[in-house]
Amino acid sequence: MLPGRFIKVVTAIRKIAQAAKNNGKHWGLPVGSIADAQLFYDLGAGFIIYGSAKGLLIKGFKQVRQEWNESFGK
């Protein structure tokens, strides 16, 4: 999370996390980084969505390209 920029968002999520805990409810959210995932996991998130189909495809294509270049040169 960018310091300062998302303070209100994180504050609201902390309130949601506490309300969920107080009422025995599960909560979760999508995240854009492992650092964010860790923050919300530590707050008690029951499910965390990390990544997207597009992101997984791009990462996979980059890996295939790297393996190809390592085997056959650039």
Can you put this structure into words, describing what you see?
The protein is 61% helix and 11% strand. The chain has helices at residues 7-22, 34-42, 53-72, and strands at 28-31, 47-50. β1 (28-31), α2 and β2 form a beta-alpha-beta unit. The mean pLDDT is 90.
Topology:
Blueprint: H1 7-22, E1 28-31, H2 34-42, E2 47-50, H3 53-72
Give the SSE string: HEHEH
Strand content: 5-15%
- How do the strands line up in the largest sheet? 1-2
- Main pleated sheet: 2 strands, parallel
Percent range of helical residues: 55-70%
| C-alpha geometry | elongated
Oligomer: single chain
Which keywords apply here?
single chain, 74 residues, mainly alpha, two-stranded parallel ribbon, 61% helix, elongated
